[in-house]
UniProtKB/TrEMBL annotation:
<feature type="domain" description="ABC transporter">
    <location>
        <begin position="7"/>
        <end position="234"/>
    </location>
</feature>
<dbReference type="InterPro" id="IPR003439">
    <property type="entry name" value="ABC_transporter-like_ATP-bd"/>
</dbReference>
<dbReference type="InterPro" id="IPR017871">
    <property type="entry name" value="ABC_transporter-like_CS"/>
</dbReference>
<keyword id="KW-0592">Phosphate transport</keyword>
<dbReference type="InterPro" id="IPR005670">
    <property type="entry name" value="PstB-like"/>
</dbReference>
<dbReference type="GO" id="GO:0016020">
    <property type="term" value="C:membrane"/>
</dbReference>
<keyword id="KW-0547">Nucleotide-binding</keyword>
<dbReference type="InterPro" id="IPR050093">
    <property type="entry name" value="ABC_SmlMolc_Importer"/>
</dbReference>
<dbReference type="Pfam" id="PF00005">
    <property type="entry name" value="ABC_tran"/>
</dbReference>
<keyword id="KW-0813">Transport</keyword>
<dbReference type="GO" id="GO:0005315">
    <property type="term" value="F:phosphate transmembrane transporter activity"/>
</dbReference>
<dbReference type="GO" id="GO:0016887">
    <property type="term" value="F:ATP hydrolysis activity"/>
</dbReference>
<keyword id="KW-0067">ATP-binding</keyword>
<protein>
    <submittedName>
        <fullName>Amino acid ABC transporter ATP-binding protein, PAAT family</fullName>
    </submittedName>
</protein>
<dbReference type="GO" id="GO:0005524">
    <property type="term" value="F:ATP binding"/>
</dbReference>
<dbReference type="GO" id="GO:0035435">
    <property type="term" value="P:phosphate ion transmembrane transport"/>
</dbReference>
<dbReference type="InterPro" id="IPR003593">
    <property type="entry name" value="AAA+_ATPase"/>
</dbReference>
C-alpha cells in the first residue's frame, strides 16, 4: 500500500532566465508504474525528474504526492534518485549507505547490517570497506543503486543510470531495477537506450523541447507512436531533423 502515490504534476513550468524549459506539464503516475521518460538531448527530461523529486522548485504549477502539494518529510523519505554520475561521499562504500540510512532515521544498531545486505544485493559485498571514490564507474553506479535499495523507496527516479556503462555493468543495473520492480517500486526513469525502455517500462512519456508530446503504454508507443516527432524518434531519425527542415515523415512543426 503506497503512502505517497499517485504523483500528480499540474501545470508545471520551469523558467531559467528568458527560457521556458519545462512547459505546461500535466501528468499522473500511479503506484507500480514504470514510466520511461524519453526524448532527445536537451528535451528537459532531467529537469522534470528533478522537479518531481523536489530538487528543483517549479517556476509555476504544483507537484502533488497523494493529493498533497509539495515535499513534506514523509514524501522525501519514500523516494530515492540515482543520477547518471553517482554522487558519493568521501568514505567507504558501506559508510555511504549507512549515512543514507541515518538520514532515514534508521537506528545505528541496524544500519550496518542493512547497508551490507544492500551491497550484497548488487554484488558488491566484497568492496564494502573500499573508499567509494576508488570504485570503478560501474561499481559506483551499483553502489548508488545499493544505497537506493537500502532505503526501500516507494518511488525510484533514475536519470540515465546506465549512460556511461558497458553492457555487463548495464545488465547488472537492469537486474537491480528488476528487483525494485518485483518489490512493486514505482519507477520514473530517463534513458536513451530504447531497448532498455522496452525491457523495463510499462509506460512512455515522450518529451520534446520541454513538453510532453505523447503518453502511451510501452507497446503502443513503440509499435504505433501517434505524434510525428515520436515516430521520428522511434525510427532514430529525430537526430537528423533540423529546425528549418520539414519533420521526417511530414507533419506539423512545433516551434518553441
Ligand atoms: N538549472 C538549470 N538552469 C538553466 N538551464 C538549465 C538547467 N538545467 C538544465 N537546463 C537546460 O535545460 C535544457 C534541458 O535540460 P535537461 O538536462 O533536462 O535535458 P535532458 O532531456 O535531460 O537531456 P539529456 O538527454 O542530454 O540529458 C537544456 O537546454 C539545459 O541546458
Amino acid at each position: 500500500m503506497s503512502t505517497i502515490l499517485p504523483l500528480k504534476v499540474k501545470d508545471v513550468n520551469f523558467i531559467a532566465g528568458d527560457k521556458r524549459l519545462i512547459k505546461d506539464m500535466n501528468f499522473q503516475v500511479k503506484a507500480g508504474a514504470r514510466v520511461m521518460v524519453l526524448g532527445a538531448n536537451g528535451a528537459g527530461k532531467s529537469l522534470l525528474l528533478r522537479i518531481c523529486h523536489g530538487l528543483l522548485p517549479a517556476s509555476s504549477g504544483e507537484v502533488f504526492w497523494n493529493g498533497q502539494a509539495g515535499f513534506p518529510k514523509k514524501v522525501r523519505k519514500h523516494q530515492a534518485m540515482v543520477f547518471q554520475r553517482p554522487v558519493l561521499l568521501r568514505r567507504t562504500a558501506l559508510a555511504n549507505i549507512e549515512y543514507a540510512l541515518k538520514r532515514q532515521g534508521i537506528h545505528r544498531s541496524e544500519r550496518r547490517d542493512m547497508a551490507y545486505a544492500a551491497m550484497k544485493k548488487v554484488g558488491l559485498g566484497r568492496l564494502a570497506e573500499q573508499p567509494a571514490r576508488v570504485l570503478s564507474g560501474g561499481e559506483q553506479q551499483r553502489l548508488a543503486m545499493a544505497r537506493a535499495w537500502a532505503i526501500q523507496p516507494e518511488v525510484l527516479f533514475l536519470d540515465e543510470p546506465c549512460a556511461s556503462l558497458d553492457p555487463s555493468a548495464t545488465h547488472s543495473i537492469e537486474e537491480t531495477i528488476e528487483a525494485f520492480v518485483e518489490k512493486k517500486t514505482t519507477i520514473i526513469m530517463t534513458t536513451h537506450d530504447l531497448g532498455q525502455a522496452k525491457r523495463l517500462g510499462s509506460d512512455v512519456m515522450f518529451m520534446h523541447r520541454g513538453r510532453v508530446l505523447e503518453k502511451a503504454n510501452v507497446k503502443d508507443f513503440f509499435t504505433s507512436p501517434q505524434n510525428d516527432l515520436a515516430q521520428a524518434f522511434v525510427k532514430g531519425e529525430l537526430l537528423w531533423w533540423k529546425r528549418k527542415e520539414p519533420y521526417p515523415g511530414g507533419g506539423m512543426k512545433m516551434g518553441r
